[in-house]
Amino acid sequence: MNNKPLLGLGVILLTTTAHAAQMSYADGGYLMAQYGCSSCHALDQSATGPALRDIARRYVSDPNALEYLSIHVHNGSAGVWGPLAMPPMDVPDTDLQVLLKWIMQLPLVP
């Protein structure tokens, strides 16, 4: 039996997990720009969409936050943060999970 494909998957998962834990503001900003998130979301100020720190504040104690937010990013949403709708976004699951973990670990300064 050849275990190399499983070993490769384990390395990818460990690398992704480690990368999410070590993401800097520049890394998060890169993913935000790559997928167009920064056209509607800013770090500390509401723009078309809510500020990233406001998202983190709202969901910091929710154990289902990553799944909930993933669904809203992929399917779009309306009425969660006001009258403007967020369109569905085509972000690969692996990048989206890294991005959402980065948002949720932002320092919650006033």
Primary descriptors:
mainly alpha, 54% helix, Cytochrome Bc1 Complex, Chain D, domain 2, 5 helices, disordered N terminus
Per DSSP, the total helix count is 5
Mean pLDDT across the residues is 82
Distance between the termini: 55 Å
- Percent strand: under 5%
Cα radius of gyration in angstroms: 15 Å
Count of extended strands: 0
Give the CA-based shape. globular
Helix content: 40-55%
Q: Unreliable stretches, pLDDT < 50, 5 or more residues?
A: 3-20
Can you tell me the CATH class? Mainly Alpha
CATH topology call? Cytochrome Bc1 Complex, Chain D, domain 2
By helix and strand content, what is the structural category?
mainly alpha
Give the number of domains: 1
Tell me the name of the CATH homologous superfamily.
Cytochrome c-like domain
Summarize the biggest pleated sheet. none
In the CATH hierarchy, the architecture is: Orthogonal Bundle
Write the element-wise H/E pattern from the N-terminal end onward. Answer: HHHHH
Notes on the protein architecture:
This protein is mainly alpha-helical and 110 residues long. The chain has one domain (4-104): Cytochrome Bc1 Complex, Chain D, domain 2 (Orthogonal Bundle), CATH 1.10.760.10. It has helices spanning 4-21, 25-34, 52-59, 65-75, 93-104. Helix 1 (4-21) runs parallel beside helix 5 (93-104) and helix 2 packs across helix 5 (93-104).
Question: Would you summarize the structure shown here?
Answer:
The chain has 110 residues and is mainly alpha-helical.
